[in-house]
Amino acid sequence: MNLSTGELREFFARCAKARQRFQELAVQAVPRTKLMEHAERLGIAVADEMAQPSEEELAFAFDLAIYTAPPGRSRAIDRLAKQHARLPGEAALVLNGLSRSWFSVFAVQRLHPEAGFILEDALLGGEVWVVDELLAEQAEPGTVLATRLARISGFAITCGVVSVLDEAMLARLRQVVSGGEVDALDLVEAPRFAQNMWLHALGSRVG
Would you state the torsion angle of the CA atoms of residues 114, 104, 53, 168, taken in this order, to the nearest 10 degrees? Predict the structure, then answer.
């Protein structure tokens, strides 16, 4: 991208606001019963009137509600993208990025000279440049994390939530893939995989 560091940060800030707006619209289109199902699968107490789950906790359930769906059903983010197919400019870049986002496990490699980080997709292969405030708060070179990335224009942003893993967990996942127990793409596209990564994140927060 032919942008200064300041312009890039401003562009990211606008993308982050658009991401939040689109994800809020997508969540609003999901039936409340489905949202509660995702929350309960993650161990988030929503049925108990005394419970007051935090927005941070609910963000993990919202991710599953927006970006996953049972076989044969459309995802909320895809329905939203179809409804807003004629969006112009940056909004279209963000919504298209969200609808084409992918979930995986990443290893932080190094700082990018302009902003953000270079991440290695540890399961699918390849590197990606990520500019994201959430990532900047948690990621130092060597950090392993599970997240969903949306490619915008030369760089990618997270879709809002991250689960920090350890080297042992990454080694086990790589062993499963390299041993042929499961195809890497099938693994990361399975809704249950993202669910398990979010369970790990929530467990770490509780612990």
Answer: -100
Alpha-carbon distance 157 to 2, whole Å? 18
Of 69, 70, 62, the residue nearest 39 (C-alpha): 62
Q: Which amino acid is at 69?
A: A
CA torsion sign for 94, 97, 99, 101 is: negative
State phi, psi for 147 to the nearest 5 degrees. -160, 175
Strand partners, 103: 148
What does the pLDDT profile of the chain (207 residues) look like in tens digits?
A: 577 888 888 999 999 999 999 999 999 999 999 999 999 999 987 766 656 778 899 999 999 999 999 888 999 999 999 999 888 889 999 999 999 999 999 999 998 888 889 999 999 999 999 998 878 777 788 999 999 999 998 899 999 899 999 999 999 999 989 888 889 999 999 999 999 999 999 985 543
Residue 58 and residue 44 in contact, taking contact as beta carbons nearer than 8 Å:
yes
Find how far residue 14's CA is from the centre of its chain. 18
Continuous segment of H or E residues that includes residue 26:
helix 5-28
Rounded-to-integer distance, Cα 135 and Cα 69, Å: 26
Task: Please give the torsion angle defined by the CA atoms of residues 62, 68, 72 and 74, in that order, rounded to the nearest 10 degrees.
Answer: 60
Identify whether the C-beta of residue 131 lies closer than 8 Å to the C-beta of residue 12: yes
